[in-house]
Prior knowledge:
By secondary structure, this protein is α+β, with helices and mostly antiparallel strands. The chain has a single domain, classed as Phosphoenolpyruvate Carboxykinase, domain 3, CATH 3.90.228. It is built from 5 helices and 7 strands, in the order ββαββαβααβαβ. The chain has a 4-stranded mixed sheet. It has a 3-stranded antiparallel sheet with strand order 1-3-7. Helix 2 crosses helix 4 and helix 3 packs antiparallel against helix 4.
Amino acid sequence: MKLxxxxxxxxxxxxxxxxxxxxxxxxxFYATSSLECAEKTARQRVVRLGGVPKVMxxxxxxxxxxxxxxxxxxxxxxxxxxxxxxxxxIDQPAEDHxxxxxxxxxxxxxANDKLSLLFRLYEKDLITVDEFAQRxxxxxxxxxxxxxxxxxxxxLRFKEVLNVK
Length: 165
């Protein structure tokens, strides 16, 4: 499987310490199975932070995650929405989250800019979690893979850095 990470600079080694804590699936290294999504992310990071848009390409063998503690969301759903909110709101108690890296890897939809308004309505309790999950089903979403432990990151093989136009 190929995974892509969009950034404003190129690199070949993953540093988990650089991950931000209040991300969708917790602090970690995020990649996507979509080259298009990674390129878009790289361009957005350059606008915010400067630099040059780059996409890092990694490979992982099929079945590589079988030995890890993995949480998967096949589609946007109530459980996914609660999980993302819990990881973004690190100061609030939550039953299921990944703020403590209890999962080595989390796989699921990206709560990206197509969802930003909808997610803000949900985070501010202006719509219910069920209404949020229902509205999400009509959005075209990319899949993200987040790696939260050194043992998970070691299963990724760096292949190359791509320049983004």
